[in-house]
Amino acid sequence: MQSYKQSALVLIDMQRCMSQASSWPRNNPEAEDNMARLLTAWRANNQTVIHVRHLSSDPASGFRPGQSGAEFQARFYPLPHEHVADKHVTDAFSGSGLEAYLRSQSIRELVVAGVSTNYSVEATVRSAGCLGFITTVVSDACFTFARLDLNKKICSAEKIHLMSLSNLDGEYAQVLSTDAVLKS
């Protein structure tokens, strides 16, 4: 098992609109508490924290700049010395300068948490793996929402979450719990 002393914690899309009620059920109701535990540990050890923020150009999006939904949730607000990577698509590496920042800081290991597991988390972790970063996804510090599949049947948030983590585990990243990461 790897040591997380030199890893950057990457928190994805922990913005206000993600904490607002959704018409679709979500999984992992404890995810934000686990993210907060990780953030507290990284800060206490003066480790690198990266906040990924989605900024949409879609006028109907809750992530559109200038509205409260695009702002960070209070408990995930970046400290002045913490890096913020702004993205405009699901992948945090695409057009954000994140890779250049990580390489300039000689960071090779990432611990990823955030939302949504099957969108921004999965896309970002796939890119991280392809770019050669050693990546861990914290399974209980991510969540997603139920949605319709191609047959127009509801697929539960938990099933989607588990499939996304299964897609990543062993190929692009290792998947561990918050407790496992914090014990390392």
Automatic annotation (TrEMBL):
Keywords: Hydrolase. It is an enzyme of class 3 (hydrolase). Gene3D superfamilies: Isochorismatase-like (3.40.50.850). InterPro entries: Isochorismatase-like_dom (IPR000868), Isochorismatase-like_hydrls (IPR050272), Isochorismatase-like_sf (IPR036380). Its EC number is 3.-.-.-. Pfam families: Isochorismatase. Residues 7-157 form the Isochorismatase-like domain. GO terms for molecular function: hydrolase activity. This is Isochorismatase family protein YecD. It comes from Polaromonas vacuolata.
